[in-house]
Automatic annotation (TrEMBL):
Catalyzed reactions per annotation: GTP + H2O = 7,8-dihydroneopterin 3'-triphosphate + formate + H(+)
Keywords, alphabetical: GTP-binding, Hydrolase, Metal-binding, Nucleotide-binding, One-carbon metabolism, Zinc
Stored NCBIfam families: folE, PRK09347.1-2, PRK09347.1-3
Protein name per its UniProtKB record: GTP cyclohydrolase 1
Origin organism lineage: Bacteria, Pseudomonadati, Pseudomonadota, Betaproteobacteria, Burkholderiales
Gene that encodes it: folE
Amino acid sequence: MSKEEFSENDWRRLLTSLGEDPDRPGLAETPHRVAKAWKHWTSGYGQDPVELLKAFEDGAEQYNELIVVRGIPVYSHCEHHLAPFFGKATIGYVPNGKIVGLSKLTRLVDCFAKRLQVQERMTIQIANAMMEVLEPKAVGVVVRCRHMCMESRGIRTPGEETITSAMLGELQPNLALRTEFLALAREQ
């Protein structure tokens, strides 16, 4: 089956179906802008997480403690309502001879966030990609997000945060390591 492109005309039809005039000055360029925005918001489909996480063995063979990056921005859209959800992610890992540039962790989160998502799946996708590429001793991922589908419609609960986590490798059985990672991941 070929991929059917969603065109600017489809966005014009949406505006019309909402009772708007897509030709009025404030909306005349909206179909073009929205089409461009959605290409950006879903650009993660065109990225390969394995390529983003090219590892290197440069001094890491001696390092065997947690490496944690906190405050990684998350901007995504839920697959149920296409509504935004946003927040922050924390990724930690204990290397096993391979490390990755710290900015690559931000790129990895962005890759999975720029797909239609549920937060739970995105969290485990990030952790699994880390395990697959780096083969570390342990990986932990914590994601905290606010979901506009809950805040602006339905139950309408502004400010609620959803927290998901994935603990792989030694973070599962090793309570001390797990406790250390969660303490480092905790917001200050």
